[in-house]
Amino acid sequence: MMSPACLLLLVLPLASAISFNWGPCPSPSVQANFTFQRFTGKWYKIESLPTYLATYKCVEANFLVDIFGKAMAIFTKTVDDAVEVTEGSVHQDIGEPAKLQISYYYCKPSPWWVLATDYTSVAAIYSCTSFLNYFHLEYVWIAGRTRSLPPEVVQEAKMVFQRNNIDVSKLVPADQTGC
Known about the structure:
Number of strands: 10
Main location: secreted
Pfam families: Lipocalin
Order of helices and strands: HEHEEEEEEEEHE
Domain Lipocalin/cytosolic fatty-acid binding: 40-177
Radius of gyration: 15 Å
Keywords: Glycoprotein, Lipid-binding, Pyrrolidone carboxylic acid, Secreted, Signal, Transport
GO molecular function: lipid binding
Shape: globular
Oligomer: single chain
């Protein structure tokens, strides 16, 4: 049984971009031949589902491998002019390396699936947490290596989600100004 504190830590990082849906999580296809080493580095949130709990800006994720070979993710965001940092350990699914799991503290890992990336400019990232298959919370994030992307690149990323029957009609641009 997951503790309430762990449940909160699992849901809060996702709260910046969550969609509530009935039923179990879908199983979208992920990036074939994914290589974490090529994925490392900074990714900036370009578009995501709307924020419900707070207004975040300057959201970024930095994936890295530390000196001991441990994969890490450091998430940074600005909330009410204060910078907040969350750090997690990254684990890859052996059979499907694009299915990352990010562990915060000692909680159950959060899924962080790379549906598509070119490694150099854009990534389509999806996460879903199911609650007894009665409902699920989805996280949809279009990420870029820069704080903005051309509209046609964003549209291509949206098409990745749509091909996997993931609704992107409510995606909103991220605030990456004044960062």
